[in-house]
TrEMBL record:
Assembly and binders: Heterodimer of two related subunits.
Name under which the protein is recorded: Malic enzyme
Residues reported in the UniProt entry to bind (S)-malate: R188, N444, N489
Gene3D superfamilies given in the database record: Malic enzyme, N-terminal domain, NAD(P)-binding Rossmann-like Domain
Known cofactor(s): Mg(2+); Mn(2+)
Compartments (UniProt record): Mitochondrion matrix
GO molecular function, one term: metal ion binding
Any one Gene Ontology cellular component term annotated for this protein: mitochondrial matrix
Amino acid sequence: MWRRIVVRSAAVTENIRRFSIAASTPSIPSPCIVHKRGADILHDPWFNKDTGFPLTERDRLGLRGLLPPRVISFEQQYERFMKSYRSLEKNTEGQPDNIVSLAKWRILNRLHDRNETLYYKVLIDNIQDFAPIIYTPTVGLVCQNYSGLFRRPRGMYFSAKDKGEMMSIIYNWPASEVDMIVLTDGSRILGLGDLGVQGIGIPIGKLDMYVAAAGINPQRVLPIMLDVGTNNEKLLEDPLYLGLREQRLEGEEYISIVDELMEALHKRWPKAVIQFEDFQFKWAFETLQRYRKKYCMFNDDIQGTAGVALAGLLGVVRAQGRPISDFVNQKIVVVGAGSAGLGVLKMAYQVVSGMTGTTANPQFYLIDKNRSGVDPSVAPFAKVTDEVKSLGLREGSDLLEVVKKVKPHVLLGLSGVGGIFNEQVLKAMRDSNSPKPAIFAMSNPTDNAECTAADAFKHAGENVVFGSGSPFENVELENGKIGYVNQANNMYLFPGIGLGALLSGAQIVTDSMLQAASECLASYMTEEDIQKGKFYPSIGSIRDITAEVGAAVLRAAVVEEVAERRGEVGPNELAHMSKEETVEYVTTKMWYPVYSPLVHEK
Ligand SMILES: NC(=O)c1ccc[n+]([C@@H]2O[C@H](COP(=O)([O-])OP(=O)(O)OC[C@H]3O[C@@H](n4cnc5c(N)ncnc54)[C@H](O)[C@@H]3O)[C@@H](O)[C@H]2O)c1
Ligand SMILES: O=C(O)C[C@H](O)C(=O)O
Ligand SMILES: [Mg+2]
């Protein structure tokens, strides 16, 4: 079935600016207090420096005799790891992609388990190569194979069996300070469905991006799996499955356990920002509504995705050589009216309805195979009009029919269905009303993308602009040019949203903070980038864009008066910072991996 959503107008600044960020590495790293000695330090990845412990530190910490005598520098350790990584790449050449990706994940994971500082150094310096391993798409494969890959726990695991005891269990976490929490119940992992406890890979991957992109101190992040059972029959029958082997809790039982966990988290770390990730549709909106006015939390799939998609949609308008206000004239077919699809729609509506001076309506055509009628969350701004009927469309029109009749400017997939933008659908995009039709195949991981980059350029035409949730190689076009692939992934926003909320001490994450994030991303790209079909920064500059987004979110929190004092800087000081000073401030707050001198305290 289809629905037409009519929204009003767009309030978006066409503010194209970039700042270069000064390096934030302090010249002398601050000391780090450690309460352990000897072998316990070597076995703690937060403090371990492997062969990098200087002799004086080995003396002071009781490490003499526990390490080979030669001290290896951080740079040498880095080189050594990269060499073994490169030789793994060489040795696995020609093997199936999944095998290679998992081998790469294993070598990185082993380092993560052993020496966090070195791990984050190699991750940050090689983010372009390593993001597809620790994040989408390989993280999906890791979740699917979690029982076999499991070696050491990471993060916290709460289960339905912990009901009534979460407040005390929370104190089992060894760190007294936590800044960022990513929480999942494993019910909708990427486009892979219900993976139960195996979904823990997602919060881990998201928090790795928080460290890499937002410079959150890895000692202050906490991935959480809330295991309320699984409805995945294959997992329930698997004797090696590591989660609860029972059906998911439902209704009141479910929500009361999430309530308890949220209360416990807030009690112990009242200033932490909590990101909900990969919850199935029926709980994603409900939990967001339930907690967003009470805790500093947001739902990445609904809100982070919306901001990224909206920034892309605004880029599409610019790529057509039109002013941003022309967004209201775009026809956008969205496939998948789930958390992400409806999130995009809601945010577009909010942004557009903030603009005055035009009565024109951008047109969203929402297609979903499961839901009929208008979803209550978008009902206030949904309207089935005569105009739609006059296009020859009806309830139940299929995707191809809709694309043929509507001739959309943008085809946006958030359905989780791999290949649904098939040859016919893509060919129909050749008749788009846009000189540069846009195709966003945003579902993850790669096999679940609505189409590949190569197919988009081949069937829809070489003039299309393309974005995908998972990375694809750029495409060599027949005209000798390059078909550029944008990674349309919420990784460009969630780290900045979390960072901005954290540094502002925000009590809650408001709509205007989220809109500020999206506008910041939209305005980040230069006109030249846009003309090349680039709507998002390269992943190599993810720290740079995250600092900008973080600053924009922080400033919005201050303006909305939800900011609170956090450490030495409070809302008053923040309010007096210029935009550039805020970016600078945010940048200086980012953690960067260096070995800190360890100071032992009993
Ligand atoms: N790129 C990103 O940053 C990003 C962010 C969030 C979600 N996603 C991806 O988007 C997908 C959906 O996520 P979600 O949270 O909205 O999930 P969801 O389960 O809430 O929504 C998916 C929707 O697609 C619909 N659908 C399924 N098959 C369909 C079909 N053949 N035709 C039309 N509709 C169909 C379902 O009925 C459902 O309503 C996932 O693959 C996820 O990985 C990507
Ligand atoms: O995890 C990602 O890569 C993006 C998004 O949050 C998703 O659920 O697909
Ligand atoms: Mg997600």
